[in-house]
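Worked example 2:
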Amino acid sequence: MRHGNKNNNLSRTASHRKALLMNLGCQLITYKRITTTLAKAKTLRTYIEPLITKTKATESKETIMHNHRIVFSYLNDKAAVKELFTVVAPKVADRPGGYTRIIKLGARIGDNAEMAMIELVDFNEIYGNTISAATETVKKTRRAGKKKVAGTTEEVATEEVSETSTETSAETTSDDAETTEA
């Protein structure tokens, strides 16, 4: 019976499971996004998020070195640990948690296993940049929230139409001048 046992064994021995999570963690840090089964992705999330949290403790040099050693004992890959502390850590410094996102992809064709993509949240260009760009360009006011946004788009559209009509009217006047000369 497995009463109260919350970790997923993934049908593997302890050493095999440790090696699997170590490899998946290194690949996630290196490539920022990997595709695996849903069960492995959920288990990897509980494995990798405490390691990312360890990169944020930067009170003293001894603490940083100690955290490097702890993370290296979990990953056993110098390149992945260096990437984690130099590239990933500055991006997640202000995030209080939730460093990974799991997106379900559907069933795998061969064995019908539920597939998922796990990615680091701060390294997704699709979600992150559009949200920040949208908030920078549109200022919301208390009363004119949607009306102001619609008004600015109408002004841009009318400016484009007026520029196009000016160009076409200039072309027609030059064509008229050529026909009168001939």
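The first strand starts at residue 33 and ends at 37. Residues 40 and 63 are 31 Å apart (CA to CA).
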